[in-house]
Amino acid sequence: MLPTSDDLQVIYGPNAAERVAKSSVLVVGAGGVGCELLKNLATAGFLRITVIDLDTIDVSNLNRQFLFRRQHVGKSKAIEAANAISKFAPDAQIRPMMANVRDNTFDVTFFRQFTLVCNALDNLEARRHVNRMCLAADVPLIESGSTGYNGQASVIAKGVECYDCVQRLPQKTYAVCTIRSTPDKPVHCIVWAKYLFDLLFGPDDDANVLKDLDLNRSPTPAQPKQNGEAQHTASAENGHSEPLDKHQNGQSPVPDSANGKHFEEQKQTDPRKRLRYSSDDTAHIFAERVAHRVFVADIEAQRAMEDLWRQRSPPILFDVTSAAKKEPVSLEKVDLLSQSVWDADHSAAVFMAVLRDIINHRVSEIGSLTFDKDDNHAMLFVAAAANLRANAYGVPLQSPFATKGIAGNIVHAIATTNAMVGGIIVLEALKIATSDGKIDKCVTTFVSQAPRGSRVKTILCPEMLTKPNPKCFVCSNGQPHVSVDLDQFTLKQFREYVLKKKLSMKEPEVYVANNILYETYHDLDEDDVEMYQSNCNKTLAKLNVENGTQLTISDFKQNLKCTIHISHTENLLLDKPIQERFVLDGNVPVPTPQADSNDHDSAEDVDADEVVEVGEERQIADGVADKSAERLGPGAREINSRERAQPDGEVANAHVPSKDRERDAGTKRPLEESNAREESQKKKARS
Ligand SMILES: [Zn+2]
User: Fold this and answer.
1) Residue 146 pLDDT > 50, yes or no?
2) Is 472 annotated as ligand-binding?
3) Known binder of ligand: residue 61?
4) Which of the two residues, 579 and 381, has the higher pLDDT score?
């Protein structure tokens, strides 16, 4: 039952309860963390909530975005979340906005109306933008993220570390259709093999992108989009209507077991369509059925989609059952740490053997297994299945050692982590709302898989907020250095690739000394527009930008101004595409799995909820740990603790008085738009 306003007065005290009720909160994102957060805010007594989300609900969201039901698929997340909250918290005024938070409508004035802003976002670009808008509007921002078992929530305001103080790397993500129909890299095949393992041996999961392979659950194979870049699950695109699963029926989401309901259902359905194991099967029959369905029937179905193969070669059929008989293997002798590549025949032999072995030795676990890289059966299965998939699609085959390295880095969203992150955001929101927007009591809280801490071990570890990075160009006086070939890079490329893409600016203006190279003022006269367009196509050298030139960059949309130092390097990075031919100071090379060195997919391009995320090693830049939620991996927390350790070796969780922080921080007030405008006009007049 929801606490009444009387209850909240008892819990918070009368004044505090009133402040909470009167606070106006902006929630950006109504996905995994957003659903938890909205529910928590409403139950904690926040009555004025605005929620922005551009997305629509996908069937793959339903397993954790609990405000949505099957009938909401295809509808606005923001609107449906608001509807769901209003039903149990009728006093709360929820204002949903189906929009992109980077839209011009959401300017500094818009942000200023809120007591606080909560980010529940899934991509870097929007996070960086909201960070800048909140700093410009002087509104506290609670930034959050979750990945697998790790998560965090922190508070950003003037005087403490902002989102841009730490170097962020885009998340690696893959469109569902690439995994399902058009793999062209080993990692795509490995992700696919993990889904197949979970499909065969794990709990029922509507979000499994291969669920159409089980013909008893999906009447016809899914048809992916022709361009191979679909970002929704195949079944949603086809509009299949499947019966509500157990979760939607409100029944217990207990994993199926060999004796459970799922298998009872399967016995009643057409055995020829069955994919998963049934007690009617022998291990041998089961293995042959899976091999045929996956490497023959499904490949035939994929080959029949001719539009997919106009620009690329279709997959080939491979008789896994026959190939496996050429050189049978003994699983005990298979070395998973071997760095020699398995060929297709050997992969086939391992594939068939491991399927039989799981049935023969672990039948009681079927329905509750999920991929674990330290489970030998799971790893043997994935190494073999991924190679057979790669073989069909002409992708290089891998050694089991390489496969394990890639498979171990793949991270899936976990509802429990989202719930914990949603909870700690509201704890910080309550501190801000009850202290007139002050952040003195706020902390960063990390959620980790295993209990940590030197005094008390806990999976929720609070740490004091840190001071801004003096090199930050957003909240401090940081002045980035950019090396580029000035004779090759045009102003347009500089704005697009360096300022917008790399530094997440929105409408950057570029000045050199007293000259305006590019400006975005809304009532420019025609001559100016023409001149700036012509400037865009000129190389930086032609615009008198030289080695050592300092460019002044202003982005009025983000109330941001900074200086960028330019250095010239002839023929810089000629082997890279033009959009990567520059070096930004502190932008150290990122170690990527060998198999995936050319991948540029990221969360900025696709919705992280509808893609598969692949973790990487963390990057340390300028001695600052990259703590972004996307980057948190095993061991991340230890590094943070070391860096923040006090002289006595304890992790600091006491609060530093905010005055000290402000004095030391050397923060710079972002330009107010009017001042900046005046300055711009003066410069223009002088030039
Ligand atoms: Zn900063």
Assistant:
1) yes
2) yes
3) yes
4) 381
Domain 481-584+669-687 in CATH: superfamily? Ubiquitin-like 2 activating enzyme e1b. Chain:  B, domain 3 (3.10.290.20)
d(CA 472, CA 476): 5
Which of 226, 228, 233 has the alpha carbon at shortest distance from 209? 233
Ligand 1 mean position to 468 CA, how many Å? Answer: 5
User: Nearest CA to 31 among 611, 607, 663?
Assistant: 607
Phi, psi of 582 (to 5 degrees): -155, 160
Number of H helices, E strands in the chain: 22, 19
Tell me the CA distances in angstroms from 650 to 210, 230, 626, one per residue in order: 47, 49, 21
For the 5-165+414-437 domain, the top CATH level (class) is alpha beta
DSSP category for residue 60: G
Q: What is the pLDDT of residue 270?
A: 61
Query: 26 forms bridges with which residues in the sheet?
Result: 50, 117
Residue-level pLDDT at 271: 59
- Tell me if 409 is assigned to a ligand binding site: no
**More confident call, 115 vs 338:** 115
Torsion angle in degrees (nearest 10) through CA of 234, 236, 608, 308: 30
Does residue 123 have a known ligand-binding role?
Answer: yes
With contact defined as beta carbons under 8 Å apart, do 579 and 493 qualify?
yes
Write down the CATH superfamily of domain 185-411: Ubiquitin activating enzymes (Uba3). Chain: B, domain 2 (1.10.10.520)
Per-position DSSP letters for 395-418, written without gaps between them: PPP--HHHHHHHHTTEE---HHHH
Any known ligand binding at 562?
Answer: no
The residues annotated as belonging to the active site are 177
Residue 617 has pLDDT above 80, yes or no: no
Q: Rounded to the nearest whole angstrom, what is the distance from the C-alpha of residue 347 to the centroid of ligand 1? A: 50
pLDDT band of 352, cuts 50, 70, 90:
very high
- Residue 9: CB atoms within 10 A of its CB come to 17
pLDDT on residue 574: 86
Query: pLDDT tens, 444-475?
Result: 999 998 888 788 889 999 999 999 998 899 99
Contact indicator for 482, 567 with CB cutoff of 8 Å:
yes
> Tokens at residue 296, please?
């023959």
* 288 is known to lie in a ligand binding site: no
Ligand 1 centroid to Cα of residue 133, in Å, is 12
Residue 8 alpha carbon to ligand 1 centre in Å: 36
ipTM over 0.85: yes
Answer yes or no: is pLDDT of 267 > 70: no
CA of 136 to the centre of ligand 1 (A): 12
- Give me ligand 1 centre to Cα 161, in Å: 5
Which pLDDT does position 314 carry in this prediction? 94
Better-predicted residue by pLDDT, 89 or 652: 89
Domain chopping of the chain, boundaries: 5-165+414-437, 185-411, 481-584+669-687
Report how far residue 530's alpha carbon sits from residue 318's, in angstroms, rounded to the nearest whole number. Answer: 60
Six-digit token string for 66: 């609990």
Locus of tokens 């030289």? 546
